[in-house]
Structure formats: structure tokens, C-alpha cells
Amino acid sequence: MTKDELGKWGEDFASNFLLQNGYSLVERNVRFKKYEVDIIAEKDNELVIVEVKARNTAEIGEPWRAVTKSKQRQIITVADHYVQKNQIDKNVRFDIISIVHNSYRTNLEHIPGAFDTLR
Hints:
By secondary structure, the chain is of the alpha+beta class. The chain is built from 3 helices and 5 strands, in the order αβββαββα. The protein has a single domain, classed as Trna Endonuclease, Chain: A, domain 1, CATH 3.40.1350.
């Protein structure tokens, strides 16, 4: 599986995980300028912005570690634009779904409110 194929597969896998856990999907691959948000979902009257990171190994670290402060700022920029453009009046939460997928295993880690807890 190429890197792009793994990324698409990871977003599909994460979307299914969210649906199975009571989220409703609003949009995917939302762009603003040169930035992108992978998934926008809703649950419990909250707008949930989800960044998906999928890798085929965790040898160099768990995939969620790739969501740097710079990447977080980019995602927040897209989310701010989306909320303003669509006049959304809900709390906004930023989650990360980190996936390691290879022929031996598929491991998904969901980190709700990740931008508040990551350092």
C-alpha cells in the first residue's frame, strides 16, 4: 500500500470507527488555502475536528506524534474558517485518530481533545 493509499484507507477506517461510536460525519477533506482537515464530525452537540494519522509501523513513534504544534495551528485555521463560514454555534473539539496498520495488526488510538493534552 502506498503512503497515499494508506492515508485514504486510514481516513475511511477512522470514519467507520467514529460512526460506530455515535458520531455523525459532517464533511471530509475540508480545505482552506493550502491546509486541510481530514474529518469534521458531530457528537453531543459538539463539532469535532479530527486529524487522522496512519502509518504502517510505530518504529519511529506513534503516528499521533506527527501532529506538531505547527500542524495544529494549520488545522485550527481551517476549523476557524469553517465555523465562521457556516455560522456554527457549537463547542469545537480537536481529536486525533492514530492508526498503525500492517499485515500483522491494525491498532487505532482515539485521542479526544488532543490539542489540549499534547505537548
